[in-house]
Amino acid sequence: MQRRRRINPKEDAKYYIDTGKDKVGLDVKYINAFKGRGIFATTFFQKGDFLLEYRGELISKEECERRQRVYHDKLKVFLFEFYFNGKLWCVDAAKEDGSLGRLVNDDDISPNAKMKYLTVQGKPHLCLFATREINQGEEITYNYGDSDWPWRCK
In this predicted model, what pLDDT tens digit does every residue of 35-54 receive, in sequence order? Predict the structure, then answer.
């Protein structure tokens, strides 16, 4: 039996960033009225594998603050702030564009993925990587970070 050669996770991520597509092996499912939709594995993923990109519009800190003032509360959760080259940036994924990354749910107790940024052509891209083995049927989750997210107090 020949062993399958593992794809380099960063190269895999760069491929999907360049093509603007989501990886095969993930699917959207409705969970419930409170949680909404989520992303589930339809195949096995190894620890360290690239899963998907959190795609959206890359905006400045100032534009992010402006949008936080005008967006409805349900859209504010799609504003992902992060530091890149010593400056605060934001990816706004509020627009429903068919990409899967915007639908990955928060889990501050036992997430199975971690958000990291990769630089491609001088721009940061937010990518999720598996922190452990993920089996078929499991929901993909990551820790949104320290904040008073409304669903955490439920």
Answer: 889 999 999 999 999 999 99
At 61-84, the pLDDT tens digits run 999 999 999 998 888 889 999 999
Q: Rounded distance, CA 154 to CA 151, Å?
A: 5
What's the pTM value of the predicted model, to 2 decimals? 0.88
- List phi, psi (to 5°) of 9: -60, -40
Q: How far apart are CA 94 and CA 123, in angstroms?
A: 20
Q: Which residues contact 68 (CB under 8 A, 6 or more apart)?
A: 76, 79
- Kindly report the length of the chain: 154
Distance from C-alpha of 52 to C-alpha of 114, rounded to nearest angstrom:
11
The two structure tokens encoding residue 83: 């530091």
Q: Is residue 140 within 8 Å of 102, Cβ to Cβ?
A: no
